[in-house]
Amino acid sequence: MSIAFFDVDGTLLPHPSLERRLFWNLLRRGEISAPSCLRWIMRSVRLGLWNFKATARSNRTYLYGVPSIALEGSSSPLPEFFPAAMQRVWWHALRGDTIVLLTGTLAPLASNVKLALERELRWRGLEASVQVIATRLEVKNARCTGSVLEAPIFGEQKASALVEFAAAADIALRDCFAYGDHHADRWMLAAAGKPFAVNPTPALRRLALRHGWRILCWTPCPSRTLFARNTFKWKGEAAR
C-alpha cells in the first residue's frame, strides 16, 4: 500500500486553473466588487512585488464578502479530467493506494474535484475515498473574509504537507507517488520516492531531466470517454 499525491490544476485538470475560472464566473455574476479587486491587487503588491504570483496565493481579498456557498458545487462546473489522469487515479485505487489531492487551489474547489473523482471511480466499479489537502479560507457568517487560514498549500508547504501526511499514515516516503506540473511543485516531487512531472512547464521539465524523474504527457480528450486511448507516456516515448 502506498499514497498517491496529485496536484490538481494542470495535472488532473487542464488549465486555466479552477480559481481563475471561479474568479471570472463570480465577476460575471457581479459577486465580486471592483473595490475588492483593487484591494487584492494593492495587497499583493504590498506583500511582495518581487514575487507577485507567490504572494497573491496568500491573498484572497478579492473574495471579501462573497458567500461561501458560491465557491461550492454547481456554481463552478468542473472541466473534464485528462483521460490519462483518470486512468492513473483508477490504477492507484485498484492497488488500494490512498489518493490525496495536494493542491494550492481553494479547499471548496478541491472538494468538488474530490467528489467528481469518487463519482468517476464508482462508475468504474470502485468505491474509494479521496483525501484533500488544499488552501483553506476564513469564513465568517457564511461569507469569505478574504483571508487564508494557516499557510497556503504552495511550494515548500506542499512538500511539508506530503511528509506530514505520509508520517501520520506510517507510509515511507520512498513508497509515495507524487504528480505535479509546475516548477513550484518541485519540492513536493523531490519529497516523494516516485515523482512524476505531468505536462511540465519548461523549468520543471529541465529539473525532471536532471534528476531522472519520469515525465508524463497527458492531453485532453474531445469526448467524454474516460477509458481513453490516451494512456501514460513515459519520458522519451513520443520519439519512438
Plain-language structure description:
The chain has a domain of 162 residues: Rossmann fold. It contains eight helices and seven strands, in the order βααααβαββαβαβαβ. It has a seven-stranded mixed β-sheet. Strand 5, helix 7 and strand 6 form a beta-alpha-beta unit. It is globular, with a radius of gyration of 18 Å. The two termini are 33 Å apart. The C terminus is likely disordered.
Features:
240 residues, 18% strand, 7-stranded mixed beta sheet, disordered C terminus, globular, 38% helix, single chain, 8 helices
Task: Write the topology of this structure.
Layout lengths: L2 E4 L11 H11 L5 H15 L3 H5 L26 H13 L2 E9 H17 L6 E11 L2 E7 L6 H13 L7 E5 L5 H6 L2 E5 L3 H10 L2 E3 L24
Parallel strand pairs: 1-2, 1-5, 2-3, 5-6, 6-7
Antiparallel strand pairs: 3-4
